[in-house]
Design goal:
globular; mainly beta; 87 residues; single chain; binds zinc ion; 14% helix
Amino acid sequence: MELDPDALTCSHCGEPITDSGYLPATDASGTYQPIPEAAVCGACGFNELGMTGCAPEPTDVFDSDTADVLLYVTVSDEGVERVSVKE
Ligand SMILES: [Zn+2]
């Protein structure tokens, strides 16, 4: 994904996302357009937004008129990698 890993900040706790996180995206005919300003870090997604200890549902993270899918991503120096997609 063409995303600067340094640009990802959790919209819930405000901390930079440095390992993994959840990234809402719009689905434009199979091409995902990430919405970095709505991203949440893995800890917040798992513990604050999802049911305790569960990955969040897309609607836990964003309004349905904001995005279409929730990408689970890993963040490293190499960049942002998409692990899975939830609709
Ligand atoms: Zn967070």
